[in-house]
């Protein structure tokens, strides 16, 4: 299985970014793709997830209403649209694949998101 996250960068508070995660090597219908993040000095935390087959989405409370995850089956890609970014959203963002939206079995390399003025 291969997972590749991309799209991170430096933005100012209130701006938006869209992360992408390309997944390959699995029959994705039985899995969820999750987004997690790890800020400096903190543990990795759940951000959002989508069940590939059912397209059911899940969000952590701090990002509800600001972040949206979706998938494009033709591209085997999951997106994390992040709006109204805050400095506390600064972290390395990872995408993962797992049977449960909150428990990933496989991880991709992270992409750094920095929100700063």
Could you name the key traits of this structure?
117 residues, mainly beta, seven-stranded mixed beta sheet, four-stranded antiparallel beta sheet, 11 strands, globular
Radius of gyration of CA atoms, rounded to a whole number: 13 Å
Tell the overall outline: globular
Q: What's the order of the H and E elements? A: EEEEEEEEEEE
Report the helical percentage: under 10%
Distance between the termini: 37 Å
Helix-strand makeup class: mainly beta
Strand content: over 45%
Strand segment count: 11
Number of helices: 0
> What are the low-pLDDT stretches, counting only 5+ consecutive residues below 50?
none
* Main sheet summary: 7 strands, mixed
The averaged pLDDT comes out at 94
């Amino acid at each position: 299985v291969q997972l590749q996250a991309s799209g991170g960068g430096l933005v100012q508070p209130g701006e938006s970014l869209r992360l992408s995660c390309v997944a390959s090597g699995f029959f994705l219908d039985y899995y969820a793709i999750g987004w997690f993040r790890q800020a400096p000095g903190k543990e990795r935390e759940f951000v959002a997830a989508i069940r590939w087959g059912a397209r059911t989405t899940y969000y952590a409370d701090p990002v509800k209403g600001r972040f949206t995850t979706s998938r494009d089956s033709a591209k085997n890609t999951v997106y994390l649209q992040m709006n109204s970014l805050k400095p506390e959203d600064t972290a390395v963002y990872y995408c993962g694949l797992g049977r449960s939206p909150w428990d990933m079995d496989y991880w991709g390399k992270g992409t750094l998101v920095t929100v700063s003025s």
